[in-house]
């Protein structure tokens, strides 16, 4: 079989171009791995002061030295260096909350607190726990961890607690220690 010169030149050019394409398609393994790693966008704020309101009334005021917002499938706002929240019933301060760490799930309206969590109301009742959840929609504070409540005239310890967010009413699941019972609740003989 006899080939004409233009066909041979075309075949040589195609082979040379193919070699260049094969050489150019070299990928670094680490670059490919980095493409597979999903980067979660974050925003950071310092010296945060934020108000939560409902129906035009201030319900809470939050302060924190650092806030990080993570835009993932479940958006989260993290407070890695302490937070403080004041709870109000319209204008009057009802209770205060402190924690060394907080995490807010914005689409669930849930706040997770841990590390030296302290809540106290204006009547002098104080709650201490290592972990606490705050459900903003239901206006509840709860935990299944150890809790320590100090009232002006008594001490109550236990495991598990449910309370309203202003801490004016609460229930301990497994209370321990002496508990004062008013005389009016005792059966009469």
Summarize this structure briefly.
By secondary structure, this protein is mainly beta.
Strand percentage lies at over 45%
Characterize the largest beta sheet: strand count, sense, and whether it forms a barrel: 6 strands, antiparallel, barrel
CATH class of one domain: Mainly Beta
CATH level 3 topology of one domain:
lipopolysaccharide transport protein A fold
Number of strands: 11
What class do helices, strands and sheet pairing give? mainly beta
Mean pLDDT level? 80
Outline type: elongated
CATH architecture grouping of one domain: Sandwich
Distance between the termini: 124 Å
Q: How do the helices and strands follow one another from N- to C-terminus?
A: HHEEEEEEEEEEE
CATH superfamily of one domain: Lipopolysaccharide (LPS) transport protein A like domain
Percent in helix: 10-25%
- Which segments are poorly predicted (pLDDT under 50) over 5 or more consecutive residues? none
**Tally of individual helices:** 2
Strand neighbour order, sheet with most strands? 2-3-6-7-5-4
Supply Rg. 31 Å
């Amino acid at each position: 079989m006899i080939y004409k010169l233009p066909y041979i030149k075309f075949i040589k050019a195609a082979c040379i171009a193919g070699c260049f394409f094969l050489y150019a398609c070299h990928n670094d393994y680490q670059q490919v791995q980095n493409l597979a790693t999903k980067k979660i966008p974050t925003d950071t704020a310092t010296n945060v002061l934020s108000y939560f309101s409902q129906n035009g009334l201030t319900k809470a005021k939050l302060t924190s030295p650092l806030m990080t917002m993570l835009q993932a499938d479940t958006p989260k706002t993290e407070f890695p260096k302490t937070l403080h929240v004041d709870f109000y019933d319209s204008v009057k301060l009802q209770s205060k909350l402190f924690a060394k760490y907080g995490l807010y799930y914005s689409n669930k309206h849930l706040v997770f607190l841990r590390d030296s969590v302290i809540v106290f109301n204006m009547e002098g009742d104080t709650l201490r726990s290592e972990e606490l959840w705050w459900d903003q929609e239901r206006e509840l504070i709860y935990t299944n961890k150890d809790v320590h409540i100090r009232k002006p005239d008594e001490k109550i310890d236990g495991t598990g607690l449910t309370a309203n967010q202003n801490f004016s009413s609460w229930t301990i699941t497994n209370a321990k220690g002496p508990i004062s019972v008013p005389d009016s609740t005792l059966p009469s003989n």
